[in-house]
Specification:
Elements (H helix, E strand, L loop, with lengths): L4 H8 L15 E2 H27 L6 H27 L2 E2 L2
Parallel strand pairs: 1-2
């Protein structure tokens, strides 16, 4: 999902090269990257939650059902964000 949603929304924000492989040093725009990653995170929550709910709705209820789902998704997306951010941030600017 990250391969499709994040680059698309990043391009809508003005960053045409999400992965930074074809952008010259100092011209990569971090705003588009951050927007793309955030939208990808929200899409992950929306798409995965029905499957998570179907799998565990008999065993858990309320906040006990939501808390692990949000925590695990936030943790994995934060790790991916940090890794990708470190890759592209050295030759980037905030615009």
């Amino acid at each position: 999902m990250l391969d499709y949603i994040a680059p698309h929304f990043s391009e809508l924000s003005g960053n045409t090269d999400f992965w930074g492989g074809k952008t010259r040093l100092g011209e990569y725009e971090l705003k588009g990257f951050v927007v793309g990653m955030f939208v990808s995170f929200l899409a992950t929550l929306i798409i995965e939650f029905p499957f998570y709910l179907l799998a565990l709705k008999q065993k858990m209820r309320g906040w006990n059902l939501l808390r692990p789902f949000i925590f695990v998704n936030l943790t994995t997306n934060l790790i991916m964000f940090i890794i990708y951010f470190l890759i592209v941030s050295f030759g980037a600017k905030w615009k």
